[in-house]
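worker-3 :: picked Replication initiation protein, RepL2
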Amino acid sequence: MNGDDKRKMLQLFQDTAGMTANQRLIVMLYAMHPTDRAGTVVETAAELAKLLGMSPTVFSRTRRQIIKAGWLEESERLAHISYYRLSPKATGESVVVELRRAT
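worker-3 :: tokens ->
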């Protein structure tokens, strides 16, 4: 982890200060976990819950709260399994593309 990554993690800790401990754990797990090119964490809720020592039910319920609050977004769905990534709110990145006048 380089200096810029550390600054981003510290900023995310500050930004999530009002969340519950479980919510913050899940956001930080998504921030630190390996992702694909689209930023998606390609592991199931059961696998991620096991990493945190949570039951899959608690993990899924807490993740739904985080999604509703805008910290995570669904990235892709394979069959009945959804995969998620950090939203622009969590990454601090702007995904707005300026419109240009057609000439």
